[in-house]
Amino acid sequence: MDQSSPRTPRTEPMGIGGPDGQRPRSSRTSFYVGIGCVAVILGLVLGVGGFFGVRAVTGGDPTQTATTDPAGTGESLEVAPEGKEAAVPLGTSFPVVSPDEFTGEVQVAVTEMDWDATAEVAEANEYNDLPGSGEKYVLATMEAAFHGEGTLSTTFWVSVTYVAEDGAEYGNSYAITPLASQLPWEVSDGTSFSQQTAFLIPQDAPEGGHIVLTPTSGVDLATGTWVTAA
C-alpha cells in the first residue's frame, strides 16, 4: 500500500514588498503626503485670511456694531445748529435728521479738510475726471455713526456743500474718494463709518469758508449746519 507523502504546510505568497503582503511606504510617498497636508493647512489659512481681507477692502459687514461714536475732536452737540452765524469748528459732532430718508439720526463730525487733494483723487479711481484748467480737488472727511431703525444708505443720507470765503457754492463732484472702497452701501444701528466728499474749486482759492450739511439736496443752505472749514 502506498504511503502518503508528508503534507507540506501551506504558505501564503509573499507580498511585493515583504512578508506581510504590504508595499513598504517609501520616503518619496511620505514626502508627497507631507506636502499634501501642508497644502491643505495653507488653503485653510489663506481662505480665512482672504475672507477677512475682502471684508476690509469692501468696508466690512454693514451689520457690525461700532463701540464708539464718531471720533470728533471737539464738542458733541445734541441739536444741530442752523445757519452761518452758528457755525461750529472742525471736529464738532452733531445729529443729522432726515425723516424722508431714514428713521433715526446720524451723529456726524467734519474732521478734516485736504486743500490739495488732486493727486489723491486721481489715485483713488482712474475714471475720476481730471480737474479743468485752473481747478483742483479738495476733500472733506466726515466721521459718522447711525442710530435708528432698519439700515442707512450711506449714499443718500446727507447733502454736503462747500461755501468759499467769497460766498461761491460748490456741490459734490461725485468723484470716487480714497475712502470709498472702505464704505459699505448700508449700515445698521450703532455702526460708525468714515466718508469723504470731493469738490472742484479754483486752484487759487484761499483756504477757508464752510462745509454745509443739509438733510437733502435743494434745501436752503441758510437752514443747514455750517462747519468752519479752516
Would you spell out the secondary-structure blueprint of this structure?
Blueprint: H1 27-58, E1 93-96, E2 103-114, H2 118-124, E3 135-149, E4 151-153, E5 159-163, E6 169-170, E7 186-188, E8 192-202, E9 210-214, E10 225-228
3D structure, described in words:
The protein has 230 residues and is an alpha+beta fold. 17% of the residues lie in helices and 28% in strands. It has 2 helices and 10 strands, in the order H-E-E-H-E-E-E-E-E-E-E-E. The strands form 3 sheets. Strands 1-2-3-8 form a 4-stranded antiparallel sheet, with helices on one face. It has a 4-stranded antiparallel sheet with strand order 6-5-9-10, with no helix packed on it. Strand 5 (159-163) and strand 6 (169-170) form a beta hairpin. The chain is globular, with a radius of gyration of 33 Å. The model is unreliable at 1-70 (pLDDT under 50).
Helix content: 10-25%
- Share of β-strand residues: 25-35%
Please tell me the overall pLDDT: 78
- Content-based structural category: alpha+beta
**Uncertain runs:** 1-70
Strand order of the largest sheet: 1-2-3-8
Q: How would you sum up the major sheet?
A: 4 strands, antiparallel
Beta-strand segment tally: 10
Overall 3D geometry?
Answer: globular
List the helices and strands in order: HEEHEEEEEEEE
N-to-C terminal Cα separation, in Å? 127 Å
Q: How large is the count of helical segments?
A: 2
- Rg estimate, integer Å: 33 Å
